[in-house]
Specification:
Elements: E1 7-10, H1 16-27, E2 31-36, H2 40-52, E3 57-61, H3 67-81, E4 86-89, H4 107-132, E5 138-143, H5 147-150, H6 156-176, E6 180-187, H7 199-208, H8 217-228, E7 238-241, H9 245-248
Parallel strand pairs: 1-2, 1-4, 2-3, 4-5, 5-6, 6-7
């Protein structure tokens, strides 16, 4: 129970990787803040499930692309728990646009992708840093993507946003050291509803993975927990959780 009496905020925690991460922190004894933007029923379900198992969790609405929402969320955490030890920037947005279709990448898609994936992450860190710095062992983990280092993914701007997140992880690790460690996890294909990928895409990814399968949401969550706790000597790093695809290429 590594995280007993510590408070973890997971953004975009109603579904997929965020949900698995929130539940993993709760199993390890953390008090969990389940953030959501629109998926209120899903987020409340996650928080209720944690409480039913004897943990402590609250669901908090905030659109991370809106700084006022983020500041309000941090104020709520301060009121409810009086501290924040771990921030997991998982909230993200994308829509599939084939990379060769340059004219389909509209300003609206550009703005929503960058505002959610990159600006939202920065807003959360900036609003949380005062609380984080109070606590020994505080950590930030950013959920990037294998799209960042490879330039692939659901859209060109999505890949760019995740590449920038990896770069900003390094910048923030320098800026917040030594009190707060900042790292990233870069999943490859993980079977969630994110970006609306069809099932056959995940099936194909498994056939070309060096491991013969794709990673699971629970495996991504375990990497987040490691960077938040046991990986206490690590900062500024990005760990790939993609079955070896980025490091080794196709099987």
């Amino acid at each position: 129970m590594t995280f007993i009496n510590r408070v973890a905020l997971v953004t975009g925690a109603g579904t997929g990787i965020g949900r698995a991460t929130a539940e993993a922190f709760a199993r390890e004894g953390a008090n969990v803040v389940v953030n959501y933007s629109k998926s209120v029923a899903a987020a409340e379900e996650v928080a209720a499930g944690i409480r039913d198992r004897g943990g402590k969790a609250i669901a908090v609405q905030a659109d991370v692309s809106r700084e006022a929402d983020v500041i309000g969320m941090m104020e709520r955490i301060e009121r409810e728990f009086g501290r924040l030890d771990i921030l997991v920037n998982n909230a993200g947005w994308s829509t599939r646009v084939p990379h060769e279709k340059l004219w389909d990448l509209t300003d609206e898609i550009w703005d929503k992708t960058l505002n959610t994936n990159l600006r939202g992450m920065f807003y959360c860190v900036r609003a949380a840093v005062t609380m984080l710095r109070r606590n020994e062992g505080a950590a930030v983990v950013n959920i990037a993507s294998a799209a960042g280092p490879t330039g692939m993914g659901s859209s060109m701007v999505y890949a760019a946003s995740k590449g920038a997140m990896i770069t900003m992880t390094k910048s923030l690790a320098r800026a917040l050291a030594p009190q707060v460690r900042v790292n990233a996890v870069a999943p490859g294909f993980v079977r969630t509803r994110f970006a609306g990928w069809p099932s056959e895409t995940f099936d194909y990814a498994a056939t070309i993975s060096p491991m013969g399968r794709i990673a699971t949401v629970d495996e991504v969550a375990e990497a987040v927990l490691f960077l938040s706790g046991a990986g206490s000597g690590i900062t500024g790093e990005t760990i790939g959780v993609d079955g070896g695809m980025t490091a080794l290429g196709k099987k």
